[in-house]
Specification:
Elements: E1 2-5, E2 9-12, E3 16-21, H1 34-42, E4 50-57, E5 62-69, E6 75-80
Antiparallel strand pairs: 1-2, 3-4, 4-5, 5-6
Length: 82
């Protein structure tokens, strides 16, 4: 799979580190109850089809939100995350 880094162009996915779904940064509030934190830390969806994931391009340090199809491995879009 190739991901197009907004800074470097198309690169092999092995240059990137996967950080999970792009909504991964939507953390519970610090005072949220234990079940909210348990869900956040341990429960992940495993969808078949289009997803939006957060990747980190190791050589240039750019965070990239990648929209891709988990069935076909097609990358639909890649955009820098501020
Ligand atoms: Zn890059």
């Amino acid at each position: 799979m190739r991901i197009s880094c907004p800074c470097c162009g198309p690169r092999d996915r092995r240059e990137f580190t996967y950080y999970g779904a792009a909504d991964y940064l939507n953390r519970p509030a610090l005072d949220a109850d234990a079940s909210a934190w348990d869900d956040y830390l341990h429960l992940r969806d495993n969808p078949a089809g289009e997803t939006r994931d957060l990747w980190y391009h190791d050589p240039c340090g750019t965070w990239v939100a990648v929209t891709r199809d988990t069935v076909t491995h097609a990358v639909i879009a890649a955009e820098a995350v501020a």
